[in-house]
TrEMBL record:
The keyword Cytoplasm does not apply. The chain crosses the membrane at residues 6-29, 67-87, 93-110. One of its GO terms (biological process) is potassium ion transport. InterPro entries: RCK_C, RCK_C_sf. Residues 138-221 form the RCK C-terminal domain. This is RCK C-terminal domain-containing protein. It comes from Domibacillus iocasae. The keyword Transcription regulation does not apply. GO terms for molecular function: monoatomic cation transmembrane transporter activity. Keywords: Membrane, Transmembrane, Transmembrane helix. It holds the Pfam family TrkA_C.
Length: 225
């Protein structure tokens, strides 16, 4: 009986994780990222990646993560208690089976297109009501398409861009935008078009990944080293 209890409880944990993954993906997270973060929060381990910042800065994900953290702490106590009392008959298997069945139904419903659509509308409403764009992580605020990225490019000596004006490099129609230039301790944002790029500068860019990679390769190709 004790082993059945543990198996059923692990089934509950697995269903909670998968339901959380569905909820996270409806807020815009990729499934692989959502599952990793859900497991990390539930087990209180590994929640240290750059992607973890996508959770606390988002009001809906923050609520889901709070539940997962609390559920994980509770689950640890339950599993330890079950192992300690593995020979006990009073394991309330009937109630556990009911909980497993309910979660299984929730998981199945969560996979249906209609439920996903309803939840997406609800999440979008919550986002508009509770979150200003200034509170979003930079990736979510600016990543409008799959191939869009925000990155930085360091300008080395003998780079093709060294000594060129910004307006000569970032021409109109090129799918890349210069957000600002970091020069030493100074961030240059005003009147960028007439600014001259210098070795040692770091350019913070936003735009199409391939265009930015091409720009980076052009920069590196002129370095004789």
């Amino acid at each position: 009986m004790g082993f059945i209890f543990i198996i059923l409880y692990f089934l509950i944990v697995a269903l909670v994780i998968e339901i959380s993954v569905i909820a996270f993906t409806l807020t815009g997270l990729e499934k692989e990222v959502a599952r990793y973060q859900a497991i990390s929060m539930l087990t209180s381990t590994g929640f240290t990646t750059d992607e973890s910042q996508l959770i606390p800065d988002h009001p809906i994900r923050r609520r889901i993560s709070m539940f997962l953290i609390l559920f994980g702490a509770f689950s640890l106590a339950v599993i330890i208690s079950a192992i300690t009392n593995i020979l006990s008959d009073d394991l309330r298997l009937n109630k556990l089976m009911i909980i497993s069945a309910v979660l299984l139904v929730v998981f199945i419903l969560g996979k249906t297109p209609m439920t996903k659509k309803l939840l997406q509308h609800r999440f979008e409403y919550e986002m508009k009501k509770n979150l200003d764009i200034s509170e979003l992580p930079i990736k979510e605020a600016l990543f409008l398409e799959e191939d869009d990225i925000v990155t930085d490019v360091a300008i080395e000596e003998n780079s093709r861009l060294d000594g060129k004006k910004v307006k000569e490099v970032f021409k109109e129609g090129r799918d890349v935008n210069l957000l600002f230039i970091k020069r030493g301790e100074m961030n240059i944002r005003k009147e960028l078009a007439g600014e001259i790029i210098q070795a040692g500068d770091k350019l913070y860019l936003y735009g199409n990944r391939q265009v930015i990679e091409d720009l980076t390769n052009e920069t590196e190709s002129d370095d004789p080293h």
